[in-house]
Write a structure and sequence with these properties.
Helix content: under 10%
Shape: globular
Protein name: Aminopeptidase N-like N-terminal domain-containing protein
Pfam family, one: Peptidase_M1_N
Number of helices: 2
Number of strands: 16
Keywords: Signal
InterPro entries: Aminopeptidase_N-like_N (IPR045357), Aminopeptidase_N-like_N_sf (IPR042097), M1_APN-typ (IPR034016), Peptidase_M1 (IPR001930), Peptidase_M1_aminopeptidases (IPR050344)
Structural class: mainly beta
Order of helices and strands: HEEEEEEEEEEEEEEEEH
Organism: Characodon lateralis
Amino acid sequence: MIPVRLLVVLAFKVCLVRSQPSQSSQQVTNPPSPTGEQSPLDDGNLSFPWSRLRLPRYIVPLHYHLLLHPNLTTLSFTGTVQIQIDVQNNTNWVVLHSKGLQISKATILDHNLAHLSDQVLPVLHNPSHEQIGIFSPKVLSSGQKYFLYIEFEAALAEGFYGFYKSTYITSEGETRNLASTHFEPTSARMAFPCFDEPSFKANFSVRIRRSPEYISLSNMPVIKTTQLNRNLLEDQFAPSVTMSTYLVAFIVCDFKSVTATTSSGVKVSIYAAPEKWMQTHYALEVAVKMLDFYEEYFNIRYPLPKQ
């Protein structure tokens, strides 16, 4: 089945979601009390540190460095994420969202990218709230910035949420796979561990590994493609604007495209299955005219270099 929505941020949507959360949502809750540097790293000696549905406010994400490698043969994916975090109260715990992901490694680094611990950090799960808690034996100090690094894997989701498998059928009856995303409202946590609430805005630097017969797309343009080996390429996308996790989007597929540029210099592309490529030109013509019209009507510049 072919996903019909565009896998890019819709015009002006990023601007609209930048509004600040209400005062009540910004209220800082008390973090779990620091336990010093001699805490044992045995999971059996730890209990999940957070009981609320909403995440604690004492850690704020600043920038995600995300690497994903979907396999369209096994219908699974592996990935890593390095999140720069700003600690606002002393704590030993980082609590964030994860759903259906198998976490294989978690570690915390200081601002110089030095490991805070030479031991494997425990990762506790709270499935009912779709949260994980990562314990640091060394206290994370208020006012300092750190890097949280996590390795994970999962199967591509069934259905149309998270990082999911989709298909289309060629005129010859061949079924072809693609991997796509739909994160709104709370499904980014199915693709990578993250602070998956709208008020936790950050920048995102995405890298996607793929076979040469596919392409990859994300919110921002590709700035570099590296050939890792004969059968594997890695696309590096430009850092995104500051946005919520549910606006992150990416796809790996074999689609073809047509492209034009608006009067303000925004690159607009329409993607479709190869056999449907000839049907994309009218959609491109309309898309360019609409984006020009809405920029003039609202007097708001489209915030991204492409759509």
